[in-house]
Amino acid sequence: MSAARVLMAGLLACPVAACAPAAWQDPFLVRGDSRAAAIPTVSVEHSYTPALDQGRPDSRVAYGAPDTPIYRDRPLNETLRGSIELADYTRALDLAGMMAPLRQAGPFTVFAVPNLPMEQLARASGPSGSVPAPAVLHRALAYSIVRGAYPAARLRQMVAAAPGNRVSLPTVAGGTVLVGRDPGTGRLVLSDGAGGVAPIWIDGMPQSNGVLYLTRSLLGVPPASDDGAPARTG
């Protein structure tokens, strides 16, 4: 039998799900769901520069960036790659080798970080325009991917029932992240137990393999100043 026939026989005998990496989520087993939320694109608005007198439209509307739709039946890795507002976070996960698990069935809970706080990390890590080293990114973002699905309603119940109104969640990196409630606003907030906090900006959005949150800041890095939308969006 020729090599081509052997290869064809192997392909025909191998089901799609069986030939895929064992831990990847099988899209054929995901129930279709057209419901969607949206991730606002605010970092582009804050980086807008007037065109002045250069013969082109000088308008935030002309160069506005649309919100990114988030569909419930899509996996976390696909949603992250499709969001303009999470472009820097997604790139950082790739560089740190942390994106691959988010293709798996999970479930996972991701506390994603918008572009402006990620830019703060880059500025604090080196010269302008430099990219932090993979090890730096891994340490900075290790808390942001948690094992298990924790929708906002479930987290609030857990926090309300926990001593000190704070719960510890296990991260994929092997550590933990603390989740509590801001006594002033009632909003969920992440903390590292050493004074660092990252308020939740957008509550958990269901995904096919978990839940996606957006935070206002990077845990351990102060929130953006008043010109940064994640620090002041309600």
UniProtKB/TrEMBL annotation:
Signal found in the keyword field: yes
Gene3D superfamilies assigned: FAS1 domain
Keyword annotations: Signal
UniProt keyword Hydrolase present: no
Ranges for domain FAS1: 73-219
InterPro entries on file: FAS1_dom_sf, FAS1_domain
Signal peptide: 1-22
Protein name from the UniProt record: FAS1 domain-containing protein
